[in-house]
Amino acid sequence: MPLNTLEEIAEYIVSDGKGILAADESNPTCGKRFDSIGVESTETNRRDYREMLFRSRGMKDNIGGVILFDETLRQSAQDGTPLVELIKTQGALPGIKVDKGLIPLDSSPEETITQGLNGLDERCKEYFSLGAKFTKWRAVIKISDSIPSDECIKANMQALARYAKIVQENNMVPMVEPEVLMDGNHSIERCYEVSCKTLQTLFDCLHKEGVDIKGTILKPNMVTSGSLAENQASIQDVAEMTVKCLKENVPSDLPGITFLSGGQSDINATAHLDAMNKIGGFSWKLSFSYGRALQQPALKAWLGKKENITDAQAALSHRALMNKFAAKGEWSSDLEG
Ligand code: 13P
Q1: Ligand 1 atom closest to Cα of 292?
Q2: Is ligand 1 within 6 A of the CB of residue 262?
Q3: Which candidate, 100, 104, 313, 324, has a CA 20 to 30 Å from the CA of 91?
Q4: Which of 176, 289, 296 to mutate to test the pocket of ligand 1 (most atoms within 8 A of CB)?
């Protein structure tokens, strides 16, 4: 498959059931993950962990792209091979998180706006020269009785559109991530309403900014009950309401939608994706861009010990394969073994 245009790059990443491994945890977030297994978050440990993931056999054919944090894009494996080269050898494209995190929103300080537009063009030029083929920018929308505010949705979606335009001008595919958080005790209907409004505003802004939709990937949340809600929606309800929300708000010429896992268990994230693809009836590829739902079993198996590397790699390979089945609507719980 030639990978010369933005469209070809975006299509490749989600081709044949492939999805994305999100390994772009900032150093503080990586520190939290390592704390959970009692490993110190040093530059070397972060490198060793990610090298282990990228060398897993199950990367091949199941993972079309890997999102990296700035530090990782510049690191080399223990034998001196740049990590970017390892990723490419596995048939995946390197991507890079380019936003600079969240700050409180002036008009509503309990909400956030994603920063990072300053100097973005220069950063993109460097990332392109280091081999990045796609980028990620994450906007966060919180739900409570009184939020999200219209200002929060608007300001964040405008920033996402501006980001996407700058990235395309630098010949990389922008992944736009408007994450409506699961945190809270809200119903699935409320998540649906906020997710629809967010996506509608996003595509409005992308259109106004002149972003090429065919060279863009959407990384949304699924429509779920709040994580603290007493009544949790079923797998089938999540799948149906997510597909409905996407069909109503996402243009059909977008090549791929790759969900974040957002705190769902690894099995639920797979089961939801599979249920959506079994429903079908949409033009975009529906796949995964999971961080925790792909890495958690591998992290738990690894525990920072060399003797656990084979088991940890098997754990990542298994989840990558299960999610590939789910991206084709061919998964069943029997395959989990
Ligand atoms: P999770 O799948 O753990 O939500 O991470 C994906 C991601 O990249 C969030 O920005």
Answers
A1: 3
A2: yes
A3: 100
A4: 289
Q: 45-56 pLDDT, tens per residue?
A: 999 999 999 999
Q: How far is CA 174 from the centre of its chain?
A: 12
CA 81: distance to chain centroid?
25
Per-residue confidence (pLDDT) for residue 6, from 0 to 100:
98
For residue 287, the Cα-to-chain-centroid distance in whole angstroms is 10
Count of domains observed in the chain? 1
Residue 102, pLDDT above cutoff 80: yes
Whether 1 has a pLDDT exceeding 80, the answer reads: no
Predicted local confidence at residue 161, as pLDDT: 99
Question: Which residues sit opposite 95 in a β-bridge?
Answer: 67, 134
Distance 283 CA to ligand 1 centre (A): 24
Say if 247 falls within a structural domain.
yes
AA identity, residue 228: L
The CATH number of the domain holding residue 114 is 3.20.20.70
Active site amino acids: 177, 219
Q: Is the CB of 138 under 6 A from ligand 1?
A: yes
Q: Which atom of ligand 1 is nearest to the CA of 22?
A: 8
Range of the domain at 330: 6-336
Q: Is residue 1 in some structural domain?
A: no
Residue 76 lies in a domain: yes
Determine the Cα–Cα distance for residues 201 and 314; give it in Å rounded to an integer. Answer: 41
Closest CA to 34 of 290, 302, 337: 302
pTM above 0.90, yes or no: yes
pLDDT at position 337 is 87
Mean pLDDT computed over every residue of the chain? 98
- Pocket of ligand 1 contains residue 295 by CB under 6 Å: no
Confidence of residue 254 (pLDDT cuts 50, 70, 90): very high
